[in-house]
Design brief:
The protein is an alpha/beta fold. It has three domains: about 10-65, Beta Barrel (OB fold (Dihydrolipoamide Acetyltransferase, E2P)), CATH 2.40.50.140; about 95-125 and about 305-469, Vaccinia Virus protein VP39 (Rossmann fold, 3-Layer(aba) Sandwich), CATH 3.40.50; about 135-295, OB fold (Dihydrolipoamide Acetyltransferase, E2P). It is about 25% helix and about 30% strand. The chain contains eleven helices and 22 strands. It has helices at about 90-110, 145-150, 185-200, 235-250, 305-320, 335-340, 355-365, 380, 385-390, 410-415, 430-440, and strands at about 10-20, 25, 35, 45-50, 55-65, 115-120, 135-140, 160-165, 170-175, 215-220, 225-230, 255-260, 275-280, 285, 290-295, 325-330, 345-350, 370-375, 395-400, 420-425, 445-450, 460-469. An eight-stranded mixed β-sheet has the order 6-21-22-20-19-16-17-18, with helices on both faces. The chain has a seven-stranded mixed β-sheet with strand order 9-8-7-10-11-12-13. It has a five-stranded mixed barrel with strand order 1-2-3-5-4. Strand 4 and strand 5 (about 55-65) form a beta hairpin. The longest helix is centred in the N-terminal third of the chain and has 18 residues, at about 90-110. The protein is globular, with a radius of gyration of 24 Å. It starts with 8 loop residues before the first strand and ends with a strand.
Length: about 475
């Protein structure tokens, strides 16, 4: 295994386990770790080396010699090209096993703790059609498969409406079907594509920075009402109105239709002026009696049913009796804060994004909650000694940070605050485990509960309960 070169083939590698980001992990005869894309744990494969280091090799499976019993037939024709559902070829029960084991291993290995209750992973009732928001991109140069290129056929129209090819931001896969969002998502996307092609509307050219149609976002609530958002590279009013009227006439489920003109170099909508063509410009969602207003820029969990289960379990872990002060760090639009507020004396939420805090305040007013207070600013700067001095001590602290986890200064402030109970919600159990390790001298990890929010992917959430020693 010395001096293995790029593109060399490693033969007969048994894939033993699932690794981070959807890869599989095996070993060479010499014991070197092999990280493999394109395989399933249990497969026996030949691997083309892409990167070789002293203690591991990265590569892709180029030939499957024995198929794993964990394999199933992928449902989608785009599997393997689209990056959206990398685990669609793994039986769902095994997906849950891999996710559960990843969380437990991270907590034990990185967190340095072993004596805690492990609640079996909470699987998703719906393994497909679970997303309430999807974003698609227009391109005038669709991705061609190797077969299409080698066939040298004339494929005519090159326009695409779909997803970016993983690792190739300028390449768009033209979607024929998608099983992540329930219909009429597919019908709307296909109808838009057909209308645009038939009427000669220009699809975006990312290299030339030109065209008309740029992105399409479809959002729904649990009542079956839909929001459609178009990003247009430039204004073409007559064409825009005809397209929008066609959609509204074809799909009565559309509750509101909004758009933005975006001549920037990126597709981010957060600094764009959103204009409403039809409806109110937002949808309402309800969760256990709470109402939330969702606009084009709003963050809201994309798996509604599992998000509700996540919030219920978070409340259960918090064990609120009505007389505790709760801090909710990284509160976002205040969804968890509002959810627990009905069982708390007072809830204090902190979030970096001012627009999210504005939404949290609006939601509290919408739900008649008088016992919530929200602050905007960088967490490590807002959640400081002065903040602790000027606010009541927390009995319970809930934290739900981004994938990077909590800044060390935030962890230090939590230890100063010294709440009796910490409920740590995480979308990255590795950084969660790191933060737990920083607190383990003062807090005991009591139990964890992994939650599968994204079936057919490697992503997994985890709820951890820590009690002050």
């Amino acid at each position: 295994m010395k001096n293995k070169k790029k593109n060399q083939i490693l033969e007969n590698i048994r894939l033993l386990s699932a690794g981070a980001k959807g890869v599989s992990v095996g070993k060479t005869e010499e014991g070197k770790t092999v990280i493999v894309s394109g395989g399933v744990p249990g497969d026996l494969v030949n691997v083309r080396v892409k990167k070789s280091k002293s203690n591991y090799v990265e590569g892709e499976a180029v030939e499957i010699l024995e198929y794993s019993e964990n394999r199933v037939e992928p449902r989608c024709i785009h599997f393997g090209t689209c990056g959206g559902c990398k685990w669609q070829n793994i039986a769902y029960e095994k997906q849950l096993d891999f996710k559960h084991n990843e969380v437990v291993n991270n907590i034990r290995r990185i967190g340095g703790v072993s004596d805690f209750e492990i609640i079996p992973i909470l699987g998703s009732e719906e393994q497909y059609f679970y997303r309430n928001k999807m974003e698609f991109s227009f391109s005038n140069a669709r991705w061609l498969t190797q077969y299409e290129i080698s066939s040298e056929e004339n494929f005519g129209n090159k326009d695409a409406l779909g997803f970016h090819i993983p690792g190739m931001w300028s390449k768009i896969l033209d979607l024929k079907e998608c099983y992540l969002q329930e219909d009429p998502s597919n019908q709307i996307r296909l109808a838009v594509k057909k209308y645009a092609v038939e009427n000669g509307l220009e699809f975006y050219d990312v290299k030339a920075q030109s065209g008309f149609l740029r992105t399409l976002m479809l959002r729904q609530n649990s009542k079956g009402e839909w929001m459609v958002l178009f990003q247009l590279y430039k204004e073409m009013k007559a064409e825009r109105i005809k397209l929008f009227d066609f959609l509204l006439a074809s799909f009565p489920q559309i509750k509101t239709l909004v758009f933005a003109i975006n001549p920037k170099g990126n597709d981010s909508i957060y600094d764009l002026d959103i204009q409403t063509y039809f409806g109110d410009g937002f949808l309402y969602e309800e969760m256990d009696g709470l109402k939330f207003k969702i606009g084009p820029k709003s963050f809201f969990q994309t798996n509604y049913k599992q998000a509700l289960e996540l919030y219920r379990k978070t409340l259960e872990f918090a064990e609120l009796t009505g007389d505790q002060v709760v801090y909710d760090l990284y509160t976002g639009t205040g969804t968890i804060a509002q959810y627990v507020a009905r069982n708390a004396k007072h809830v204090i939420g902190i979030e970096a994004v001012q627009e999210a805090i504005d939404a949290a305040i609006e939601h509290a007013e919408l739900n008649g909650l008088k016992n919530t207070t929200f602050y905007a600013g960088d967490m490590k700067n807002v959640f400081n000694d002065e903040f602790l001095e000027n606010h009541p001590k927390a009995d319970v602290l809930i934290t739900d940070p981004p994938r990077d986890g909590m800044h060390q200064k935030v962890v230090e402030q939590i230890l100063k605050l010294s709440p009796d109970r910490i409920v740590y919600v995480s979308c990255n159990s590795a950084t969660q485990a790191r933060d737990i390790a920083l607190m383990k001298e003062d807090y005991e990890l009591v139990k964890i509960l992994p939650v599968d929010m994204f079936p057919q992917t490697h992503h997994v959430e985890n709820i951890a309960l820590l009690l002050k020693k």
